Amino acid sequence: MLLLDMLPGGADRCNTPRPGAMVPENPLSPRLAGASRSHTGRAGDEAGPTKSPAPLPSAAGPGSEEAGQGGRNQGSQNLRGRGTEWEPDTEAPLPSPRSQSPDLSDLATVGPIMAFPEPKPKKPELPKKLVQNLECKQGAVRAVRFNVDGNYCLTCGSDKSLKLWNPHKGTLLKTYSGHGYEVLDAAGSFNNSQLCSCGADKTVALWDVASGQVIRKFRGHAGKVNCVQFNEEATVILSGSIDSSVRCWDCRSRRPDPIQILDEAKDGVSSLKVSDYEILSGSVDGRVRRYDLRAGELYSDYIGSPVTSVCFSKDGQCTLAASLDSTLRLLDKDTGELLGEYTGHKNTAYKLDCCLSEKDTHVASCSEDGKVYFWDLVEGSLTLSLPVGRGVVQSLSFHPSEPGLLTATEGRVQFWREETHTAEEQPPAC
Which family does it belong to (predicted)? Predict the structure, then answer.
C-alpha cells in the first residue's frame, strides 16, 4: 500500500501539506512567473474555484471534532513562512477560507498577502517658482540644454564660448572655448564624459568634459550649423545646417568625411532630435521629416510654415513641431494625423524652442513677448503663461524627470521649479 493511501482522504488530499513538512516553492506560481491574478487569496492558494480544505488530523485523531473546534477557538493561527507558501504549526488545524483570518502581524516580516489599489496620482505641477538666476556673461545665450540626467546644463553664447553649469546650485563648472563664431547648440553624451557643439563657424566640435579640450572638429557643412545631437551610444554626432542637410559623423573614426548625408530638405534644417532608431528633423521648407533607420524609410509631414523646433514625446508615440505661424502642432508619429494645435504665444521671426513636460502632460513653448506658455496636452487649453523677461525667450529645456525648466533670455538663464519645491540647504562655508 502506498503511503499516500494511508492518509485520511486518500489521494484527494495529496495537495494538503503534512504538519511540519517543507513545502517546495512552485516555479509556476503566479507570484514568481508574473502571471496576472484576477483575485486576491492567501499566499499558497492555487488559481481556480476556492475550495475549503479539510482540516489536518490533530493529536486527537482525524475524527475528533473537539480537537478541531478547540484549535479554532485558540484565536489566530501561528503560521510560519516556507518560501512563498505558508505552513501551519504541527498541532494547529488549517483554517478554511471563510474562517477566522490569521493574525497579519505574524506575516509582516514575510510580505503582503493582499493587493491594495495604488494611490491616486498627484496633479502634475508646473514650474512657476524662480530658484536660480544665472548671469552667464557670454553675450546673448543662444541655447540652454539639460544634460541626460538633469543635474547639469550647457549654455551656448554669442561670444564663441560654451559653459557647463550646475543649475541647482547656480555654480559655473567649466568654460569651453574653441569655436570661431557664436555657438548655436550643444548636447551631452549619455555618460557625461563628452560634449558636442555647433556654431555659425560651420563646424561641429567634440569636447572632453574633464579637460575642456577639443577632441575633434568636423568640417563639411556649407553654412552655419543650427542643431546638433548625439546618438544613444554617443558614437555618432548628427548635425543640421542651413545648407539643407543633416550629416552624421563617426566619433571613433579619424576620417574627416561624414558617414552619411541626409539631404532631402529643400531649405535649412532648423531643429534635430534623435531616438534609439529614429531621426526627427524640422526644416524651413515647412516639413517635419522622420527617418526610420531600422526600416530604412522616410516619413514627411507638411506643416505649411517654416518649422523652428521639433521634439519627440516621452512615450515615443507623437511628435511636436513649432512653426513661424505662432502655432504648435502635435502629430501622430505613425500616421501623421494632427492630434492638437496650441496657439496664444508669439513666434513670427525667431527660431524658438518647444518641448513637452517630463510626463507628457503639458506642451511648452518660448515666445517673443518674454513669456513661456504651457498648454494642457489633451484639452489644448492654455494653462500658464510664465513671465520670464522683457526680451525674446529664445531657448528652453525641461528637466528629464522632474518639473524643472531652464529658460534663456538675453544674457541670462533662469531655473524654475514647482511651487512646492524646497531648495537643498547649502553646507556652511569653512
Answer: Belongs to the WD repeat MORG1 family.
Helix (H, G, I), strand (E, B) or coil at 73: coil
- What percent of the chain is predicted at pLDDT more than 70? 70
Q: What is the CA radius of gyration of the chain?
A: 32
**Of how many residues is the chain composed?**
430
Edge-to-edge strands, sheet with 287-292: 269-274, 278-283, 287-292, 297-302
Reported pTM = 0.71
CA 327, CA 425: separation in Å to the nearest integer?
Answer: 41
Of the candidates 415, 334, 326, 413, the one whose C-alpha atom is nearest the C-alpha of residue 375 is 326
Phi, psi torsion values for 72, nearest 5 degrees = -70, -25
Measured at the CA of 348, the angle between CA 315 and CA 266, to 5 degrees, comes to: 70
Mean pLDDT score, 287-312: 96
Higher-scoring residue by pLDDT: 4, 128? 128
CA 23, CA 80: separation in Å to the nearest integer?
Answer: 11
Quote the cell numbers at residue 200. 555659425
Q: Give one DSSP letter per residue of 325-388, joined into a string.
A: TTEEEEEETTT--EEEEEESS--SSS---EEE-TTSSEEEEE-TTSEEEEEETTT--EEEEEE-
Residue 32 backbone phi and psi in degrees, to 5: -90, -40
| Sequence-ordered list of residues with C-beta below 8 angstroms from that of 422, at least 6 positions apart, any chain | none
Domains and CATH numbers, the chain: 129-417 (2.130.10.10)
